[in-house]
Amino acid sequence: MRVGIGYDIHPFDPNRPLVIGGVRIEGTWGLRGHSDADVLFHAVGDACLGAACLGDLGEHFPDSDPQWRGAPSSVLLGHILGLVRGKGLAPSYVDATIVAERPRIAPHRQAMRERLAALMGLPLDLVSVKASSNNGIGAIGRVEGIAALAVVSLVPAGGAAPGAGA
């Protein structure tokens, strides 16, 4: 088994929609970034790349490449999963945390888990999405943006995921 850790952070942008975990959240500012700035999918993608020893998001999706401008992060994550599978590996578990003072993540968490599970090809009970705040400390605490952290485990492709079918 291989394990990777991912992290991403983006500042708010009042002129963009907010998309986290592939879910559009209305009534709040979006995030600034080259793609759609989905911090959850970026953190998960970076964790996958790390577990597979394939570098990081910046290497695969540089902000100098117009191909990725405004791209849905689900496309980026799909590309990453193709690279991971090309190395004979497959995701077996995801645990992610979104760090934000606002918006409230709880009403959207289940939809994020479902979207992430579908993209990763995992049963829902092997995908965890949690939320936390910075309790008013630092840039996140000052409501300047949103961050996400993720841990992903990979196993040899074709191997049963832990807990699958249980």
Write the layout of secondary structure elements.
Layout: E1 2-13, E2 18-20, E3 23-25, E4 30-31, H1 39-51, H2 57-60, H3 73-86, E5 89-99, H4 109-120, E6 127-132, H5 138-141, E7 145-156
Question: Mind explaining what this structure looks like?
Answer:
By secondary structure, the chain is of the alpha+beta class. It has a single domain, classed as 60s Ribosomal Protein L30, Chain: A, CATH 3.30.1330.50. The protein is 28% helix and 30% strand. The protein contains 5 helices and 7 strands. A 5-stranded mixed sheet has the order 4-1-7-5-6. The chain has a two-stranded antiparallel ribbon with strand order 2-3. Helix 1 packs parallel to helix 3 (73-86). The longest helix has 14 residues, at 73-86. It is globular and about 45 Å long. The protein starts with a strand and ends in a 10-residue tail after the last strand. 42% of the residues are buried. The model has no long low-confidence stretch (mean pLDDT 93).
